[in-house]
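Tokens as discussed.
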């Protein structure tokens, strides 16, 4: 069970790996022994994965059979089909079921962002949206209107995860629900596209990564810049080629984000809203229209601008700099203008220090006098500014002319496409769960520094987690 944001600073620092040595010990084994054990596990893993996939496909076929078929006959057919499926190779499985078989998607969380990402999934003809779940009828109805076919309605996400006909899920709920739903989805054998931030606190992120590894799941975090064509190009041209020299500072900012200023047009609880389900693991409190409608402004449900916005930018910084574990964080800010009951700051400054010899900063304010969102990398041989609209590189050489490139395409559509390709190929997606955890962890370190009003450090030994390629049980 997750803890409320007000409790976060007082939680066990040993558990979070902040300001304390790790209690865990690392016992490396010989590479020869590890390879031998991995070979044995792979033999079991491949058959298990093929059986799991085949089971879901066969269940779908059985649902289409005439209802007049007696249940013993159905059970006998299913047992025989599953037994035969164990002997399939990946190639024969593809030939039997068809390479173009549509992936069955379930949606958990159908609010504004959930609907936006759902539209991206609907652009892909290889996906069938078959089920949805939300605590609010209005959100569900708006999402259902986007889908041409009938969808199954679930009021409890656990019932949706129990649906064996579903291959993968989109999770777009408020932050305080992410970890529990992601871990449960892994245990249910679903691949996951989950919105950022990955989790509400740091230790939750570690548990999600371990669950993805244990259950061999493909998990894409909604940090769509990693699939943006101009982001990929800028990294290749200026970072992989070292055109900036030694980068000593990465400045990021995101001002005037109106999503954090949303106001409800109702006061009492609207019909069709399950308030207790919305609260989930949070302590019960009477219905509050602002906490429901503008939950990003409350630290019981998220991290304000720090985790909602900075997570996007620090992920790009980690990716370009090839370093994702900050050493320390400091932060200052407060609620300086919007005295509307919010608990998240309306103005914030975060500073992270990295072992590689550079710093990353984030500044954000909701005050209307500031606008814009971008990242600027400053190096000894030039600087690069990049945002969702494009990038500009300026060499440090005298009289150098700026090089400007505009963004093309829809990054969310590209990110969803990458996820679907990764699911089919059983490869790492562009924003793999460990990358998403590390970006979330960095922004959460800033949140902790803000709440504690002091410099906090991160112990890297507390975050020793298996990478995708080295995980012994990943497909």
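Sequence:
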């Amino acid at each position: 069970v997750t803890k409320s944001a007000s409790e976060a600073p007082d939680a066990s620092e040993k558990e979070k790996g902040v300001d304390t040595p790790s209690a865990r010990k690392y016992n490396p084994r010989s590479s020869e022994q590890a390879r031998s054990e991995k070979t044995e596990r792979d033999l079991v893993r491949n058959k298990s994965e093929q059986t799991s996939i085949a089971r879901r496909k066969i269940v779908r076929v059985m649902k289409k059979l005439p209802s007049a078929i007696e249940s013993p006959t159905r059970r006998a057919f299913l047992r025989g089909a599953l037994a035969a499926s164990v002997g399939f190779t990946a190639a024969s499985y593809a030939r039997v079921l068809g390479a173009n078989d549509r992936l069955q998607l379930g949606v958990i969380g159908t609010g504004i962002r959930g609907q936006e990402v759902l539209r991206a999934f609907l652009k892909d003809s290889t996906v069938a949206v078959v089920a949805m779940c939300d605590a609010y009828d209005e959100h569900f109805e708006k999402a259902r209107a986007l889908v041409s076919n009938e969808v199954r309605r679930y009021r409890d996400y656990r019932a949706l995860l129990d649906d064996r006909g579903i291959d993968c899920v989109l999770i777009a709920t408020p932050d305080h629900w992410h970890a529990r739903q992601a871990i449960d989805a892994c245990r249910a054998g679903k691949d996951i596209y989950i919105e950022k931030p990955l989790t509400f606190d740091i230790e939750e992120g570690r548990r999600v990564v371990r669950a993805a590894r244990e259950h061999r799941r493909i998990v894409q975090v909604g940090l769509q810049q990693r699939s943006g064509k101009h982001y990929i190009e800028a990294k290749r041209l200026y970072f992989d080629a070292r055109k900036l020299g030694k980068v000593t500072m990465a400045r990021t900012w995101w001002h005037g984000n109106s999503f954090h200023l949303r106001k409800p047009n109702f006061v009492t609880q609207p019909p069709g809203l399950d308030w207790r389900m919305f609260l989930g693991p949070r302590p019960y409190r009477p219905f509050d229209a602002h906490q429901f409608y503008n939950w990003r402004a409350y630290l019981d449900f998220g991290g304000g601008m720090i985790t909602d916005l900075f997570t996007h930018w620090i992920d790009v910084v980690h990716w370009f700099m090839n370093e994702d574990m900050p050493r320390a964080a400091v932060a200052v800010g407060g609620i300086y203008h919007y005295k509307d009951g919010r608990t998240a700051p309306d103005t914030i400054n975060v500073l992270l220090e990295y072992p590689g010899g550079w710093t990353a900063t984030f500044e954000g304010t909701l005050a209307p006098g500031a606008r814009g969102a971008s990242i600027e990398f400053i190096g000894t041989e030039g600087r690069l500014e990049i945002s969702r609209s494009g990038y500009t590189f300026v060499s440090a050489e005298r009289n150098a002319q700026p090089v400007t490139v505009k963004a093309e395409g829809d990054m969310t559509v590209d990110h969803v496409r990458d996820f679907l390709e990764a699911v089919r190929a059983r490869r790492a997606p562009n924003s793999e769960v460990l990358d998403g955890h590390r970006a979330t962890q960095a922004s959460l370190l800033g949140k902790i520094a803000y709440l504690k009003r002091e410099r906090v450090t991160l112990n890297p030994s507390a975050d020793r987690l298996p990478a995708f390629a080295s995980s012994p049980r990943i497909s």
